[in-house]
Amino acid sequence: MKKNVENMNLEEAIEALEKTAAQMEDPALGMEKSLALYERGMQLSQRCRTLLEGYEKRIQMLDKGEEVPFESEQ
Question: 24 with 45: CB under 8 angstroms?
């Protein structure tokens, strides 16, 4: 069963994105399957972007000497 994209950590999202991209290379895919894979890939890409932006903000806060509460990624 596929894990919900919103609950993936960065490593899981990247791995799922790589698998999705590999599946899309199959020339025998029909239009519906290709579209579904594309949509999932876009969701995974957005999840990665969101997580990375959050990490960047935390790093910037740390660089400024601000305390950043530790939160494990989900």
Answer: no
Going by pLDDT thresholds of 50, 70 and 90, the confidence category of residue 73 is low
Q: Which two tokens stand for residue 11?
A: 């490593």
d(CA 46, CA 51): 9
Q: Are 32 and 74 in contact (CB under 8 A)?
A: no
Residue 74 is given by DSSP the state -
C-alpha 16 chain-centroid distance: 8
Task: Please tell me the pTM assigned to this model.
Answer: 0.81
